Amino acid sequence: MAHRRGVGRGTPIVKIARACYPQVAMSDGSTIEWTDATWNPLRGCVKVSPGCKHCYAATFAERWRGIPDHPYGQGFDLRLVPEKLEEPLRWRKPRRIFVNSMSDLFQVGVPVDFVRRVFEVMNHAHWHTYQVLTKRADRMREITRALPAGLVDQGHIWLGVSVEDRRYGIPRIQQLREAAAAVRFLSVEPLLEDLGPLDLRGIDWVIVGGESGPGARPMAEEWVRSILAECRRAAVPFFFKQWGGVQKGRRGRLLDGRTYDEMPARREVAEGRSKSSDLPVYLSVAG
Ligand code: SF4
Q1: Domain presence at residue 56
Q2: Is residue 45 lining ligand 1, measured as CB closer than 6 Å?
Q3: 31 is a domain residue
Q4: Contact status, residue 72 vs residue 81, Cβ threshold 8 Å
Q5: Does any domain span residue 225?
Q6: How confident is the model at residue 31 (pLDDT cuts 50, 70, 90)?
Q7: Are 156 and 126 in contact (CB under 8 A)?
Q8: pLDDT (tens digit, 9 = 90+) per residue, 15-28?
Q9: Rounded CA gap, 155 and 181, in Å?
Q10: Is the minimum distance from the CB of 108 to ligand 1 under 6 angstroms?
């Protein structure tokens, strides 16, 4: 850790975590370029595809395994954290919130009822915009179609899938299209190969980024330009997050001399949703 600027003996653990794992979720505030804050009512996950190889959440969580009373004392094992459910209700200022940056909401071990509770909170704290990203697109499709329509297809709840390669990533795009959602996005990160032609029908936003950190796999410029061209053809907003690399700061996030920070406009919550009188009994807005 000593090589990180500003980190040394006596540095608070939160600051160390932020310096060493800038993507990692401290619950409020985030250094991820395309969001404002992270919210983690779950912790832990299981790796499912090549994009998971260097999962920052797994690396971070496993550092704390076995430490009593630490939030990640169970390492990266899946754990529901119901006491975190109310967090967005306490954040009064509207934010873009990355939901479960340290996990995957749609993994098999998460009960449908808990997923429903997460959606209920997103509806009650409707002044925020939520970015729900998954690699379990098939289960997301099944669950969102089974939940009440008004709970999931809200303009302030964006559902997205990771698309790191052709074999695992591309099939998720169709599953996302078939999910119940008002806004759909792709996180093409870490981009591991040329994706070829992309069908972006029904997709509202594309994020592209290279892998960063030790062992980062390379990303070719032409792969990124190809996706940009597809976005331009389909009139889909394009966000270029980073080139990545072992030291991602060195390569920055310029593509052909400019940044791309496009994103969809927030769409308003449908009429009749989110009245405080609808709050389920397990939620309160105190705090
Ligand atoms: S799905 Fe996401 S959180 Fe889960 S192991 Fe893969 S990269 Fe990590």
Answers
A1: no
A2: yes
A3: yes
A4: no
A5: yes
A6: confident
A7: yes
A8: 444 444 444 444 45
A9: 8
A10: no
